[in-house]
Amino acid sequence: MIVITGPTGNIGRHLLSRLLESAPAAGEELRVIVRDPARLPDAARGRVEVITGSHGDADVVDRAFEGADAVFWLVPPDASLTPHDAYTGFTRPAVKALAAHGVGHVVGVSALGRGTPMADRAGLVTASLAMDDLIADAGVAYRALANPSFFENLLEECDSIRENGVFTDVLDPHRKAPFVAVADIAAVAAGLLLDRSWTGTDGVPVLGPEDLSPDDLARIMTEQLGHPVRYERRPLDELYTTLVGHGLNEAFVQAIVDMKRAKDEGLDAGITRTPETASPTGFEHWCARTLGPAVRS
Questions:
Q1: Which of 119, 171, 115, 165 is nearest to 295 (CA)?
Q2: Which CATH number goes with the domain that contains 73?
Q3: pTM here?
Q4: What is the pLDDT of residues 194-228, one digit of tens each?
Q5: Mean pLDDT for the chain?
Q6: Domain count of the fold of the chain
Q7: Residue 270 predicted with pLDDT over 90
Q8: What backbone torsions phi and psi does residue 146 show, to the nearest 5 degrees?
Q9: Number of H-type helices and E-type strands within the chain
C-alpha cells in the first residue's frame, strides 16, 4: 500500500497518474489523502482508497498510514504560518503515525542546499531541511527529493509575459542554476515508491538537464513563444513589501526572501549534475508543452 499526499497538486497529480499506470502491475494498492475528493481525476475514481482531510491532522494520518508500506510526503506551504509551523509543525503528526504503524519507506519533497554555507539561513529551504531531519529521525527509510526551482513557477508570470513581454524575479540575470519540471520530480518519486529496495536516509537531487540563468530563460521563451520576452530583476525589499501587503505571515515572507537571497548566492549550485541526478525535461520542451498554451489561453 502506497499513500500519496497532495494528489491534486502540481507534483502529486503527475505522481498519481504514473502510479495509476504502474502500481497494479506491481501489485500495489493506492491510498490518497485529499481535502476535496471532487478534485481527483476521473481516472482515479474507484481505483484508489480516499482519506478525506488534511495530512497535517493527526487523526487523518493515523487512519491513512494504517497498513501502509510507503508514503509520498509533500507539505503544502501555508503562508499564514511561520516557516517552522508550516513545515516541521505540519509534519509532526505524520511522524508519530509513521512510527505507530511501522511504515517502512517515505519519499519526501525537499530542496537543494544541504551541506552548503547558506543552508542554515535559507528561509523556506532551511525549514524544509529541518522537516527532512524530523522524518529521518522516525526510523523510516527516507529519500528526500532535493529539488531546485520549478519551471512551473513561471506560470504565475503568464499575464505579465502575455501583456508586457516581461517576467520578474530577484536573481542576478546571469546567475546560472538548475531548474526542474514537476513531472520529472514525480517520475523519480514513482520509481522510489515502487522499488523499495533502498534503505537508510539520503537525498536524491533532481536537477533538470542543464543550468539556466534568468536571461537564458528569457531567450528561450522568446524563441518558443514567438515574441520578445525579457527579464526584470526586482529588489528583495520590494518582494517583501509586496508579499506582506497581500496578507502573508511576515515570518513566512522573510523566509521566502531569505531563500531567494541564498539562491542568488549559489544555494542550488552545490551538486554536480550526473546521469543519475539529471532529469530529462528541457526548458524548450516545457515551454512548448506547458508555458506556451498557458500564455496563449
A1: 165
A2: 3.40.50.720
A3: 0.96
A4: 999 999 999 999 999 999 999 999 999 999 999 99
A5: 96
A6: 1
A7: no
A8: -90, 105
A9: 12, 12
